[in-house]
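Board notes (copied after class):
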Amino acid sequence: MSTFLFATLDAGGNLPPAVGIARELVSLGHRVRFLGHPRQEAAITASGAEFQPYNHSPRMALAEQLPTLQQISMLVSVFTDAGIAQDVVEEARREQADVVIVDCLLLAALDAAAKAGLFTVALVHSFYAFFDGPFRRTPITAMLALRGLGPRRVMGKANRILVCADRQLDPAGRPGRTGAGDQNGRVVWSGAVVDVDRPAPAPAPGSTPRVLVSLSTTAFSGQEAFMQRALDAVADLPLDVILTTGPAINADRIWAPANVTAHSYLPHREVMPECAAVLGHGGHATTMLALAHNLPLVIAPMHPLLDQRMVGKAVQDAGAGLLIRPSASAEEIAGALRTAVDSASLHLGAATVGQRLREADGARTGALFLAEIAG
């Protein structure tokens, strides 16, 4: 039996891949511990892993509407926090962890773990092409580099980089891709980690198609306005709409037509098997879960500096969905949703990707990889 320590942060869709892999490690008989933020405890312990909150960590409040500069400052403070780094090293030594798996956003913790001589794996929870590409050219990364924590340099210190994404969708993993991003063969793709029992069945003839509308749990500028336009768009469509507002949107400020059922929270894996399509923001976790259910998507990226547009473009290029502008009108959103629901080619494209995601079994593949390197 080996001991694994995961270090994570409360940033929404970054957690499911780590939890899915942890669940598989526990089922294989290994001991798994997590360091994280208090709101993550329930999801982590449900996997069978142990949870310990950080003793030192800046406050995270991604669901709050904050000015852009304040939000960036908050993220940088967490990514570079010396207290989190100290907690990770101390916990790994105390528990004699065989492998330390650190969220790729926790750059100070990755750096400290490598300097301490711990066997370290950087866990990438979206496309590697984003973290090794556009992410290195954002204002956030400029601030990180000033602190000596540039992402490529820091991840280059890790013993391995585990990418929880579909290699065919990830631009960095496609055949023929070469360059510095390969990190000399230390980058491994497990496949997307998706918790799916079965794909969504085809809607029964004559039934009203159901669509899931769900945006990010992180507060982004313009997100609430887009959601209202989306609800205006479906008002006159023959659709049954399930809406999840999440903590970032005030449901009291949203008008929902009669064909919309609103929830503040609903596990997506429970409602997706009843759906025909998904309207989302391009978050990697929700997008891959939808595809694993064979569902085509309409994707409206909510933030230009994050991976959402890259994810949306990859889905559109795969013939599994449509990428639209976050400023799209209600009429444009309605047209995209009609296409997603009615298009046989988009359903076929989503089913093709979905089958590949399910067969890859990213959680099991990632767990077996970690168990192997732990010896």
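Comment from the instructor: The chain has two domains: 3-189, 210-358. Residues 151 and 330 are 38 Å apart (CA to CA).
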